[in-house]
Amino acid sequence: MKKLFMLGIVSTSLLFTGCYDQSASQDTSENNSSQKLELSSAAAISTMEPSQAGDTTSTLAMSQVFEGLYILGPDDELQLGVAEEEPEISEDETVYTFTLREDAEWSNGAPVTADDFVFAFQKIVDPQYAAPNADVLFDVIENARQINLEDGDIDTLGVKAIDDKTLEFTLERPVPYFKSLLAYPVLYPQNKEYVEEQGEQYATDSEHLIYNGPFKLTNWSSTNDNWGYEKNDTYWDKDAVKLEEAGVTVVKTPSTALNLYTTGDLDVIDKLSSEYIPSYKDDPSFEPVEQFTTFFLKMNSERDGKKNALDNENIRKGIAQAFNKEDFVEKILQDESSPTDHLIPKGQTQSPDGKKDFTEVADERNDYLSYDPQKAKEAWEKGKEELGVEEVQLDFLTDDTEEAKKNAEFFQYELQENLPGLEINVEQVPFTVRVDRDQNKDYDLELAGWGTDYRDPLTVMRIFMSSSDLGGVTYSNEEYDKLIQATRTEHAGDVQARFDDFVEAQDILINQDTIIAPIYNRSLSTLVEPSVKDLHWHAYGPSYSLKWAYKE
């Protein structure tokens, strides 16, 4: 989801676990009479309607209270969720038939049925709902594209309820990442009867939702920063859930988060501010979490129908080469993140022969733009000459937190120092406002990111297609679109050709058109009170899972 990390992201998924000692955890947790956690969050929930999800905070919350056919397990492997067992798959790998758990229920006592999944998938592609992630099903589920873009019959979507507990998917063609996709929070089931009964009130607050996951949401509304979770006693796997409740507090000031942690008011800081990382790196409570998430600078060339200086390719290339990525990671982030020139995170995707990482192959085939002040200045001066200007003014959109301000000021200084005549104005707004402005392309420059929702390059490369609004940037390139579309259609079953398409498309996006300038792959720095056990962090999908967590 977008996983827009606004960032923001990624996002959103699943996996299987083998080494979790449930019995030991049960014994220990029962000795603690107060099974409650307090966690921080850098941002508020923007929506709890799965079909409308576009940011990581929202999908993280959804993954605690809803459940799809699969979930992301402790070791980032697929585990069965609502699905009773692995699906029956047709010989041509285009029909998947799932049997749902008999004991899967909603928190109002209604059974989770195949119709709940049919309804949810139909909402994603039905154009009346304008779901931002509709394209995730294009060329995957039969007729999804035609229904969404050509006003096709919604009943022709390749998702059918054979009976209450039997769900059938018909695909356009074999899709290697299909199971992973089914753990994506935007595809969580929804109970049609309940949704229609609630009308416009549905998902506006925690009282107008029902839940089929480990927890129920509490004390949340669309205007409230903080929220909570309480154990869902109707959850089919409730015996695995040790926590009785959890509270989440949005903390925008790093010092406040640390004070709350040191005084015992927080058990978990979900993102430790960079200024405190050197002091805590050797502390037992410090947990770095490598994630398949890339942060990048977005350059938006049109606002309110008016072109700006970023419409010039050389201006964009000047900016892309004018900031020191290593300095940003080492001096500003001060964590274990790593600088990158790529959109696809290192470690997410391997070459078809399994011998090289995607980023290695991409570097071998193309020359990537990186920090080079001289080349940056040359491109910049050429761009100004082409525009006939000596000065350029741009707005830098960011969140209203201290850390976001510090990050933006780094780029403000670097770019103004290396690009003569450039003036940058930093605009700080609340996270939810930034999400809205991003989607409306109401900015010039923005530091954003995208987390991996499912393990395939398509998870992020699709958002920059002309047909997608998720990228939140003015961009259209026919060749890029063709390459990405080929990975879904004619090359879907050819792993080498599909891999090559992604490599070529990334070159177009970054080196040729330079719509984004990659900066770093994130390592999330967290503080977890040592008595907290089995709070599992993830490299992709939701940042963490509370399902197995407990206090010793």
Pick out its properties.
four-stranded mixed β-sheet; globular; 552 residues; disordered N terminus; alpha+beta; eight-stranded mixed β-sheet; 20% strand
What secondary-structure arrangement, pairings included, does this model have?
Blueprint: E1 4-5, H1 22-30, E2 36-41, H2 56-65, E3 70-72, E4 78-80, E5 88-89, E6 95-99, H3 114-125, H4 144-150, E7 159-163, E8 166-170, H5 178-181, H6 192-198, E9 215-218, E10 227-231, E11 245-250, H7 254-262, E12 268-269, H8 277-280, E13 286-299, E14 302-303, E15 306-307, H9 313-320, H10 325-333, E16 338-339, H11 358-365, H12 373-387, E17 392-399, H13 402-418, E18 422-429, H14 431-439, E19 445-451, H15 458-461, H16 478-488, H17 495-512, E20 516-528, E21 532-533, E22 536-537, E23 544-545, E24 550-551
Parallel strand pairs: 2-11, 17-18, 17-19
Antiparallel strand pairs: 1-19, 3-4, 5-6, 6-8, 7-8, 9-10, 10-11, 12-20, 13-19, 13-20, 14-15, 16-20, 21-24, 22-23
What would you say about this model in short?
The chain is built from 17 helices and 24 strands. It has 552 residues and is an alpha+beta fold.
Largest sheet: 8 strands, mixed
Q: Given the C-alpha coordinates, what overall shape results?
A: globular
**Unreliable residue runs:** 1-32
What structural class should be given to the helix and strand makeup? alpha+beta
Distance between the first and last residues' Cα: 33 Å
Q: Please tally the helical runs, counting DSSP H or I stretches of 4 or more residues.
A: 17
Percent helix range: 25-40%
> Mean pLDDT across all residues, rounded?
92
> What is the number of strand segments?
24
Q: What fraction of the residues are assigned to beta strands by DSSP?
A: 15-25%
The radius of gyration computed from the alpha-carbon positions, rounded to a whole number of angstroms, is: 23 Å
